[in-house]
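We give this protein:

***
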Amino acid sequence: MQELIDKAAILLEALPYIRTFHGQVFVIKYGGHAMVDPELRSSFARDVVLMKYVGLHPVVVHGGGPQIDETLAAFGVVSERLEGLRVTDDHTMKVVEMVLGGHLNQEVVSRIGKHGGRAVGLTGRDDGFLRARKVARMRTKSGREVDPGRVGAIESVKTDVVRHLVEAGFIPVIAPIAVDAEGRSLNVNADTVAGKVAEALGARKLVLMTDIEGVKNANGEVLSSLSAAEAEALRDRGVIQGGMIPKVRCALEALRGGVRKAHIIDGRTRHAVLLEIFTDRGVGTEIRTE
């Protein structure tokens, strides 16, 4: 009996969050280990289906770096990265479109459907809703400037198609492929796409899934909550390092663009999204405007 009572207590803990967030848009960047481990893939799909059924509006933006690497390796191609972005020649762009816009996107859509949700896959080509410009130059670690190829920086997000899907009861699943003014495909960082989509939709929250516990302080302790100013101070002092730097930068830009809160969570934890949104403690770091 006590086990049943404990389960009821968990539901009651979630109730005020469900009430507060009912009808709100949540943009979730899905990637890392959560896209590789079979159990975590199913866990994530169930999470977003549950969110939809309790009245929230999840919008998923997925990555796929390891899967692209694997496919390129099968073709004997090794791709270089600059500042976390993949150098993308024309051949690599075809592989990116095949993996992100085709296989992975439809796999996520199918898994959400398997767990009772209704999902539709999109890329920036659909209604031209992700418009970007080509990044002309990027700097290597040695300081040399190079052309990164078909790498894009988001200029605008046309939200009509995504809003229509949300209002019709679907979960949009977005691959981070944009188009330029001439309709050519560009490869864009998935965190960046998620942040820009969250801004354009006026999302209540941006959730970035990672393969680490969250933002840490100088002592290596995970911070459950910090303000934008505190996050900037940690970054400027060099406490925030490596792959966490672009994620924090993305979160701060989203907050400046009107998103209420950004969350950086450990996607290696089962049901990480639900635990972060619907429990008092959470499983990552929330970054708030003040």
Q: What stands out?
A: The mean pLDDT is 90. The radius of gyration is 19 Å. The CA atoms of residues 182 and 283 lie 42 Å apart. The first strand starts at residue 25 and ends at 30.
